[in-house]
């Protein structure tokens, strides 16, 4: 039995999901969009030393090539 976990972004549904596969078949999918976005924003705030009320401008420069990452134990 081959178990795999992935984090995937679906551009159609706009969701980031944690997925579990067994032998290539999807067994479970959990929407983690809010949690991931909150963690990513907190990291950006920390990286740039931002305080409450500070603004951060983001410019998209290129399309991401990968919307799926496999998690390895």
The best one-word shape is elongated
Helix content estimate: 10-25%
The first-to-last residue Cα distance is: 15 Å
Mean pLDDT, nearest integer?
A: 91
Number of separate structural domains: 1
Strand content: 35-45%
Main sheet: which strands, in order across? 3-2-1-4
Q: How many helices?
A: 1
Spans of at least 5 consecutive residues with low confidence: none
- Tell me the number of strands: 4
Radius of gyration: 16 Å
Q: What sequence of helices (H) and strands (E) makes up the elements?
A: EEEHE
The structural class is alpha+beta
Biggest sheet character: 4 strands, antiparallel
Description:
The protein has one helix and four strands, in the order E-E-E-H-E. It has one domain. The longest helix is centred in the middle third of the chain and has 15 residues, at 33-47. Strands 3-2-1-4 form a four-stranded antiparallel β-sheet, covered by helices on one side. With 73 residues, the chain is α+β, with helices and mostly antiparallel strands. The protein is elongated and about 50 Å long. Strand 1 (3-10) and strand 2 (15-22) form a beta hairpin. The relative contact order is 0.23. The protein starts with a strand and ends with a strand. The mean pLDDT is 91.
In short:
The protein is built from one helix and four strands; from the N terminus they run E-E-E-H-E. The protein is an alpha+beta fold and 73 residues long.
């Amino acid at each position: 039995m081959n178990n795999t976990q992935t984090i995937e972004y679906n551009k159609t549904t706009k969701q980031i999901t944690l997925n579990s596969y067994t032998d290539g078949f999807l067994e479970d999918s959990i929407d983690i969009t809010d949690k991931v976005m909150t963690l990513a924003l907190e990291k950006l705030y920390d990286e740039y030393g931002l305080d409450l009320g500070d603004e951060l401008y983001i410019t998209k420069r290129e399309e991401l090539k990968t919307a799926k990452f496999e998690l390895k134990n």
